[in-house]
Write a structure and sequence with these properties.
By secondary structure, the protein is of the alpha/beta class. It has 4 domains: about 15-205, SGNH hydrolase (Rossmann fold, 3-Layer(aba) Sandwich), CATH 3.40.50.1110; about 210-355 and about 575-595, HAD superfamily/HAD-like (Rossmann fold, 3-Layer(aba) Sandwich); about 390-565, Aminopeptidase; about 610-725, ACP-like (Non-ribosomal Peptide Synthetase Peptidyl Carrier Protein, Chain A, Orthogonal Bundle). It is about 45% helix and about 15% strand. The chain has a 7-stranded mixed sheet with strand order 11-12-13-14-15-17-16, with helices on both faces. Strands 2-1-3-4-5 form a 5-stranded parallel sheet, sandwiched between helices. Strands 8-7-6-9-10 form a 5-stranded parallel sheet. Helix 3 (about 90-110) packs parallel to helix 5 (about 130-150). The longest helix is centred in the N-terminal third of the chain and has 21 residues, at about 90-110. It is globular. The protein starts with 12 loop residues before the first strand and ends in an 8-residue tail after the last helix.
Length: about 725
């Protein structure tokens, strides 16, 4: 995916949420993350328990959300009490039928709209969990839904286990809230759920990097291999966990490199002699082990891999090394490891930049492809001329129409290809399908191989034919195949198609980006004068005959495979380096300070604190009951303090918050209180303390009455004193 910050739309994007339960308590933690990430996204909730209606109704909140993300929150237990249209579902067959109906609706909606769907599966109550039969059934339903939605384009599922592993919350269930207002979770769990949603949205909306450059000493192992020797360094459980994490990144398609200040032979011996190393030589696509500056080595790696510096992540434990790379390679995302080794595995697991979506087959074998590319580079250096180099490659280029199973790779290429990309238009699988179905566009895909191996699926051309002309929508080629004249064959194929259909010309747009100078160099090398449009955009117009002949055109090229001057550094673009360093700071902060639910919940609460507008003078709590009640009120109202006569509703409370407050009071004082209290009083701390005291008196033993009487003397409440007087006096021994 492009490492540029995503273009900001004119209007804020929308996070649309539909749930089988009351989900509005998510607004506060999710709003916190929207602000923290600097993402202008509006949060809106669909009507209660209307997921199916949202998926099927063309005028629903989901269906009209053309930008942003649609979020489905599903708790299977809710289907055991009611389903759509309040139909009672009390049999397994009904629950399973409802699940299949939901899966079909989700599949259709995801294919119909370009908006991605995020489905979060939420845990049932503890009572369900301890019932073996019910627990087993609900687990089966979760597995069934995950299976039914596997491979659906534009849809991501978060199983209950993923949320529990990432942000565990022990006291997640709110029995009182579930009973009073179908709010089944505690505020802490809503914070965890909101964080997971924000994390998934970050992965959807932000850049994916291609290369991880790792330090060796004190990063992959404890000790210094040049001083301690290969047998003296330690592969501790923490270092092994780091290596395991990096192998996972390798398997998901990331390229791994090593950059270490050491004698190369010492590092080679570590990999050869320490067989317990999880990260092995075969996982590394390249390395630089020498005494040069690491920024210099990273630039060298970028040149060898033909990948822009903005696609690199550098990880090191040394703050001086990190500062040096930040200063001299500002495009690189530099992440310094914490000094405490014990927190390193958790730190890495909470670096959101490593969260990835579905990996295509091409992406998963990226290390092999780049190893083959290195062999080609060695062959190129030995070739007397570029023409002999090309001839010796024995290149085979296949250009064919798109078939449905290739959509994922086409989308991946539009999001990852930066240098040779005429417009850098990013598209999802759904958007590509809609472009072809509703706008009549056609898509060609390009596969390349040579004597050293298979480049794979590396190129895409999307075009439309109309009014005697062909208009190119997308023309891109992966950098690993660039400079092999594959781009010439792609253009020639367009010319051939145009001639076959009797079209006179081909119109090719070019939209400038910080990194796609090679695409402009290629177009200018063709000799056709461009027509300049607005904002650094151009349109090139070629005759169909000329384009078809480009395949055989002798164009001067250097033996490094580039067609002209190199692409400008991404750091030269306004604000790019600053944005990269700000992103590194944010990601590090999240991984160290906002990496568990309790931490996040405290920060959310502190950030939400506001000064209330009171119509009465502040009066401090007088008793333990009032003090505890005031704390509960303040927590839910996001204010620093609440007086005993302050109106709950004047301080910003509403019925949903009142339901949560009432549930918390029931739990704190072990009393039964009616929801009618919302409407029978101002719902003040003083009034609620009186109601709590009444309930305590009603259930009090004679021995407890004396204690209650002492507390009531501080309140001077005649109504409560009268109730107390009706109780029997305690027995004396």
């Amino acid at each position: 995916m492009s490492t540029e910050l995503p273009d900001q739309p004119l209007e804020p994007q929308k996070i649309a949420i539909a749930a089988t339960f009351t989900a509005e308590p998510l607004e506060k933690p999710l709003g916190f993350w929207v602000q923290e990430l600097g993402t202008p996204m509006r949060i809106e909730f669909a009507p209660y328990n209307q997921i199916l209606q949202q998926l099927l109704d063309p005028s629903s909140l989901f269906s009209t959300n053309r930008h942003g993300v649609n979020v489905v929150l599903l708790r299977f237990e809710d289907w055991l009490r009611s389903g759509p249209d309040a139909r009672v579902l009390n049999t397994r067959q009904n629950v399973e039928g409802n699940l299949r109906e939901l899966a079909a609706a989700l599949t259709a909606a995801a294919e119909r709209l370009p908006t991605p769907y995020l489905v979060c599966l939420c845990p049932g109550s503890p009572a369900q969990a301890v019932d073996p039969e019910k627990s087993s059934f609900l687990k089966q339903m979760e597995a069934l839904l995950i299976s039914a939605l596997a491979g659906v384009t534009g849809l991501r599922i978060v199983p209950t286990s993923e949320l529990a592993d990432a942000y565990p919350v022990t006291a997640y269930y709110d029995a009182g809230g579930d009973q009073l207002g179908h709010i089944p979770f505690t505020p802490l769990f809503f914070t965890a759920l909101g964080t997971m949603i924000a994390r998934k949205i970050y992965a959807l909306k932000n850049p994916h990097y291609k290369v991880i450059v790792l330090d060796g000493d004190q990063t992959l192992w404890d000790g210094v291999c040049g001083e301690d020797g290969p047998l003296g360094i330690e592969i501790s459980p923490v270092r092994r966990a780091i290596q395991e994490f990096m192998v996972e990144q390798h398997d998901s398609g990331m390229l791994l490199c090593l950059c270490s200040k050491n004698n190369e032979e010492d590092v080679v011996q570590v990999f050869e002699q320490r067989t317990e190393m999880v990260l092995q030589r075969r996982h590394l696509v390249a390395w630089r082990v020498n005494w040069k500056r690491k920024s210099e080595n990273i630039k060298s790696l970028a040149g060898e891999l033909q990948v822009g510096l903005e696609s690199f992540i550098f990880i090191d434990d040394d703050p001086l090394e990190c500062a040096e790379v930040e200063a001299n390679c500002p495009e690189v995302l530099t992440l310094q490891l914490p000094g405490n080794p014990d927190v390193l595995p958790k730190f890495l697991r909470n670096l959101w930049v490593f969260d990835r979506g579905n990996t295509t087959e091409e992406g998963g074998k990226r290390t092999v492809l780049y190893t083959e590319s290195f062999q080609r580079e060695q062959f190129r250096k030995q070739a007397p001329s570029f023409e002999e180099f090309l001839a010796g490659l024995r290149l085979k280029v296949q250009i064919s129409p798109l078939v449905p199973h290739q959509l994922a790779r086409v989308s991946e290429l539009t999001n990852r290809t930066n240098q040779f990309n005429f417009t850098t238009t990013r598209r999802s699988e759904i958007e590509i399908r809609q472009l072809m179905e509703s706008e009549g566009a056609e898509c060609l895909v390009v596969h390349v191989k040579d004597r050293f191996g298979n480049y794979g699926f590396v190129g895409v051309v999307v075009f439309k034919a109309h009014a005697g002309a062909m208009t190119v929508d997308t023309f891109l080629l992966s950098c690993r195949a660039l400079g092999r004249r594959v781009e010439h064959r792609m253009l020639a194929r367009l010319g051939e198609i145009a001639q076959e259909r009797g079209l006179d010309r081909i119109d090719i747009p070019y939209v400038r980006s910080p990194k796609n100078q090679p695409a402009l160099d290629f177009l200018e090398s063709l000799g056709a004068p461009p027509k300049e449009l607005l904002g650094g955009s151009f349109q090139f117009r070629l005759t169909a005959r000329f384009a078809a002949a480009v395949r055989d055109q002798a164009i001067s090229e250097r033996t490094d495979g580039s067609t002209s001057k190199p692409a400008p550094s991404a750091a030269a673009s306004s604000g790019f380096a600053a944005n990269t360093q700000a992103r590194a700071s944010l990601l590090t902060s999240i991984a160290t300070e906002l990496c568990d639910a309790d931490q996040i919940h405290r920060v959310v609460a502190e950030r939400a604190l506001r000064q209330p507008k009171r119509s009465t003078t502040y009066v401090a709590p007088r008793t333990d009951i009032e003090r505890r009640l005031a704390e509960i009120y303040a927590e839910f109202l996001d204010v620093e303090r609440v007086g005993i006569h302050d109106s709950f509703f004047e301080l910003g409370g509403h019925s949903l918050l009142a339901t949560q407050v009432l549930s918390r009071i029931r739990e704190a004082f072990q009393v039964e209180l009616s929801q009618r209290l919302f409407f029978a009083s101002e719902f003040t701390v003083a009034e609620m303390a009186k109601q709590v005291m009444k309930q305590q008196i009603k259930r009090a033993d004679p021995q407890e009455v004396a204690v209650l009487k002492k507390r009531l003397n501080e309140l001077s409440d005649e109504e409560v004193k009268a109730l107390l007087a009706s109780k029997k006096k305690p027995q004396t021994l």
